[in-house]
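Q: Convert this sequence to structure tokens.
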Amino acid sequence: MSSLLSLINRPLVVAISIPVITGIASGLTTKTSVNGWYKTIRRPSWTPPNWMFAPVWTFLYASMGYASYLVWKTGQLHPSLNISFPLRLYATQLTLNLAWTPLFFGIHNLGAATVDVAALWGTLVATGWEFYKIEPLAGYLFAPYAAWVSYASALTAWIWWNNGGKDVAGKKE
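A:
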């Protein structure tokens, strides 16, 4: 049994688990809003069905975790590479990603969620580019994420704009 455990790549498991587990935890907090408040706001015809979010985000979180592992591993193999900046960008974009859910679904601050997702998009593109310079596959793994967040950015901005640019209390933001 211990020989089987020695085959587990712990850094890889940790790298993938961090975004997947935090993303799942964040997603679980949306259930009440998705079944209540979210149904009452104006949404575009191109809003994806609710069932689509969990599998898409799980794939994207696993991909970004694997990308971070590739950068970390390359840095271990080539200590002269500076992986600190790309990994700090990664942590920043992950923080912005996780902040969006409570802004949008938690406190219903659509304006703040729109600003957050715009900052997320810029940071994730920068992260993907920095990852690419260290390990090209890691950068490529950010392409589907960038595409989805581009879509999510447009969706968030549309919802904010078409719901009067108001926060949950009905005040102009």
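DSSP finds nine helices and no strands in the chain.
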